[in-house]
Write a structure and sequence with these properties.
By secondary structure, this protein is of the alpha+beta class. The chain contains one helix and six strands. The chain has a domain of 56 residues.
């Protein structure tokens, strides 16, 4: 019993480290934090361009708006506002 009692702090540390690693893998960083959106029609429809399950082909042409946005609205542009988002079929 005394030997087991002496091992409790080490056992607790191993268990804590295991749980911390399990929680880290169970809750990966938010996928939306790095999301990028484009709109081919001035904000009526939005396309997530960097979705790993559904990649989108697009290009940024010269224009008068931002090519990409961090949120699906016109208030959060990424980069300059002299581009235009164009879908490539």
């Amino acid at each position: 019993m005394i030997k087991f009692k002496n091992l409790l702090p080490a056992l607790a540390m191993v268990l804590g480290a295991t749980l911390a690693m399990a929680m880290n893998f169970a809750n990966p960083s938010s996928e939306n934090s790095d999301a990028e959106y484009g709109t081919p029609d001035g904000g009526i429809t939005w396309v997530r361009v960097n979705d790993p399950q559904n990649p989108v082909n697009y290009q940024c042409d010269l224009g008068s708006e931002a090519c990409l946005y961090s949120e699906p609205n016109l208030m959060n542009p990424i980069g300059t506002t002299d581009k235009k988002f164009v879908l490539i079929p």
